């Protein structure tokens, strides 16, 4: 599903690489936590998977494709097979819940009939049935994140990337979001989630990958958040 | 791709940037009106030059029947074949003459009708009022006097006319104005382009949230860029339509009504509506393509896809 082969990435005008010599493999259907302090390279790791950035040396394979060899115009097609969720939700404030989810399908040219059918389905799945016509501003943080997850999942992606999805949420709400991500994982979707939330990692007992100053320092199945940082 | 969705996005974008959109429309309209005006001025000059102007410098009009009473050198009536032959032979002997064209009265009539098509003058002239003539091209255009002194007053010749004398100053003026118009319009087009680039930049910035999400969910770069380009093209089209209206209105008020130039200067063949109409598609095309191109260039810099 995802393979990093000795990946090194240095941003322009930076002395220290954001990632150095990272190699790992994530299999289909896995649930993986990506932990590490700020600046450890988590975001770079995710940006490389999304091909927002490219490696200096080493190769990143996602869904069986070498991203270095993927031409620019094919990148959108690759991204359609990924779902992404962020800490700040990234919803459109002037569109309703249903429109926000439908937007993801509209911009990739899905026919209207498909949109009308799938949007309620996926909103039901994330537990937002009946809130289709609400505006994001009227929803709680947890509900907004559910909209974002619905949008990420509406295309039934093979891989879901979540960058601190519970970062803005209280612990109670976070548990609900994690249950949802776990459910999505059980449908066969691979989930890679960067997080700082120790409780969640310790409770879920999933694979944990830890980065420190750009290096892979721990890769543990059924791991815990680990050492205090 | 869903048209309705795209159109609604364009509408939202244009309304959000209303003042900038107006600025784009007006600057495009003015620069295109100037472009069209310069093109039409050019056509006007060509229309006034008629068929012979750029080809010859001197015209020798020979007598026809009607000239007998008015011109002393024509007192024997219309020019004879012998006279024509000797005039031609003498013309060819002059070293300053490069080439001589002969135009019969019939041909002269046809060209006249063509040049003054739609002008009331055309219908008042009959073929037998026209004169046979020799159109003379000189090796040195300033040497008109040589030809004039050699042929003026000769039996069978009504007048020797320096073609350039009458209209050259006017054409110099028109051409000069056209050149000034080109310079001004180059500046105006630059201003319009810069305005469009800036408008697209602001537009892309104010919509970075949408475009960011579009990128995330895998919209193609064409799909992301298209609304911006379509917005610019639409604003350009509105500007171009205004420019067309200005051109049509300009011809109407200068030539037909308002200044009534056609009425005041009936001797000049003014460009017709057909000339104005042929310029309009070009104006519209430039009006759509130029802003679209400017938007495309701006997006390469300001919109990450």
Can you offer a commentary on this structure?
The complex is a heterodimer of chains A (about 230) and B (about 300). With about 230 residues, chain A is an alpha/beta fold. The two termini of chain A are about 30 Å apart. The model of chain A has no long low-confidence stretch (mean pLDDT about 90). Chain B is of the alpha+beta class. Chain B folds into two domains: about 180 residues, no CATH class; about 110 residues, Alpha-Beta Plaits (2-Layer Sandwich), CATH 3.30.70.3040. Chain B has a four-stranded antiparallel beta sheet with strand order 2-3-1-4. In chain B, helix 2 packs antiparallel against helix 7 and helix 2 packs across helix 9. The longest helix of chain B has about 45 residues. Chain B starts with a helix and ends with a helix. The mean pLDDT of chain B is about 85. The chains are: A alpha/beta (about 230), B alpha+beta (about 300). Chain A: Keywords: ATP-binding, Cell cycle, Cell division, Cell membrane, Membrane, Nucleotide-binding. Chain A: It is found in: Cell membrane. Chain A: One of its GO terms (molecular function) is ATP binding.
Provide a short characterization of the protein structure:
Chain B: InterPro entries: ABC3_permease_C (IPR003838), FtsX (IPR004513), FtsX_actino (IPR047929), FtsX_ECD (IPR040690). The complex is a heterodimer of chains A (229) and B (305). By secondary structure, chain A is of the alpha/beta class.
